[in-house]
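Have a close read of the entry that follows and walk me through the local backbone shapes. See right below:
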Amino acid sequence: MIELIPLGGLGEFGSNCMAVRYGDDMILVDVGMGFPAESVYGVDVCIPDFEFLEEYRENIVAVVITHGHEDHIGALPYVLKKFNVPVYASHFTMGLIESKLEEHDLLNDVLLHRVEPRDRVEIGEFEVEFIRVSHSLVDCFALAISTPIGTLIHTGDYKVDETPVIGEPIDLRTLRRYGQEGVLALTSDSTNATVPG
């Protein structure tokens, strides 16, 4: 059985973080910060509650990042202080992560892996393929997270745009291939999904 455990970002803007568990292994997909309403004085940022993860301390094998916006990487230093696990991200996103980790004196303590579109990486019980998507930032990924019992697709933030202003267009061919093979679940970020353009 695959468990999908949203720790933030569900029904709210920001704090994107989802745990994916299969067998004895768990990966975290994105570790973002949230932004409080203007009426909450004295609070600048919010981070997901990671207490749930304490029970799975020995099971967390990696953090996989879809892209470098704060609502997807902003809480990364806080989770890495608790759980020192490898991080996988694109080159551009990793540059943003390195700056953030340096601010928190963590840069030399964390194993960082740069990945390219279409890279497939074995992480514990999972195989993760990084699929290029277009967004308002370069070097963004959807993820195909495969296990012995099937695959789930997590889109991250994306835009279907054949001629994006920045970056490469979405890799619809790879997404189509997974669709034809069959997936167990599709999880998708939906910020501004109802806004044209």
About this structure: The chain has a mean pLDDT of 90. The two ends are 38 Å apart (CA to CA).
